[in-house]
Amino acid sequence: MRINISGQDEFERYQKNLKVFAKQIAMLKNRLALQGEANIRNAFLKRFYSGGPAQKNPLAGETIKIRSELVHDGVNFISDTKYSEYLEKGVHRHVMDYLLKAKRPIPIDIGNKVIYRRKTQKTNYLKTRKAIKKHFPFVVEKKIIYRRCTRSSLARGKWVHKGFKKDRHVNDGMGFMESGIAKTLRDGNREIENLKKLIG
Questions:
Q1: Domain coverage including residue 49
Q2: Cα–chain-centroid distance for residue 83?
Q3: Which of 15, 44, 98, 197 could lock onto 176 through a cystine, CB 3.0 to 4.6 A?
Q4: Structural domain count of the chain
Q5: What local confidence, expressed as pLDDT, does residue 55 receive?
C-alpha cells in the first residue's frame, strides 16, 4: 500500500504541531532573548573594557543599551545607543573635521583624579589620648575640560581619531553584537534542533 502526503497536508500538520508546542517555543525564545542580551553585553565589555587602564580607554565609563524583541520567527536584538553602529563595525583613523560644526565647546574626559585628605582620628590607647593621623582617599568625579575645534587646531594635527577595530582585544573578526548572537546560537543549538525535530 502506498500513501501520498501532499504538500498542503504536510503544512497543515506542521501548523498543528506549532500550536501544540507553542508554549515550549515561547519559553525557548525567552531564554534565548535573555541569554543573548547578556552575551552581547559581555562581548562589548571584552572589546572595550580590557587591555589597559581605564584612563587610556576612550569608552571608559560608557555603557551599551541592549534590548530584545520577540517576533514571529525568532528574536531581534536592538541597541538604542546612538554610537553602537560604529562600535559594531569599527572606525578608521580619521580627522574629526565634522566637529567644526559643533555649536558648543566639546567636553573631553581626562579621567578621574584620586585625592587624599588628611583626617585626625582620636582613640583611647592605654588610657592615653593620642591623635592618630590617617590618609583617607576619596575619588573625585570625572575631570572634564572643554575645547573648541578650529581650523588652526586641525592644521596642527589635533582632533585626530585613532580609530579602533570592531574586534579589538579579541580578534575574532566579529562585532560585539554579532559575536554575542553567535554565542547564543551555539549555546542554544541543541535545544533549537530538538524542538525543530519535535515540530517537524
A1: 1-93+162-200
A2: 11
A3: 44
A4: 2
A5: 40
The total number of residues shown for the chain amounts to 200
Cα-flanking dihedrals φ and ψ of residue 56, to 5°?
-90, -5
What Å distances lie between residue 56 and 68, 191, 200, CA to CA? 31, 42, 53
**Which pTM value belongs to this model?**
0.67
- Give the DSSP H/E element, type plus range, for residue 131: strand 128-140
Show the DSSP H helices in 2-139 as ranges.
7-20, 22-48, 84-89
Q: Is the pLDDT of residue 100 over 90?
A: yes
Do residues 168 and 47 lie in contact, with contact meaning Cβ atoms separated by under 8 Å? yes
Residue pair 45/62 in contact by the 8 Å Cβ criterion = no
Query: Distance between CA atoms of 2 and 13, rounded to whole angstroms?
Result: 19
Q: Does the pLDDT value for residue 183 go beyond 90?
A: yes
Of 98, 64, 96, residue with least CA distance to 83:
64
* DSSP structural state of residue 51: S
Q: Are residues 166 and 86 in the same domain?
A: yes
For position 6, what pLDDT does the model report?
54
| Among 87, 109, 83, CA closest to 169 | 87
Query: For 52, which DSSP code?
Result: S
8 Å CB contact between 88 and 177: yes
* Upper half-sphere CA count for residue 186 (Cβ side, 13 Å): 7
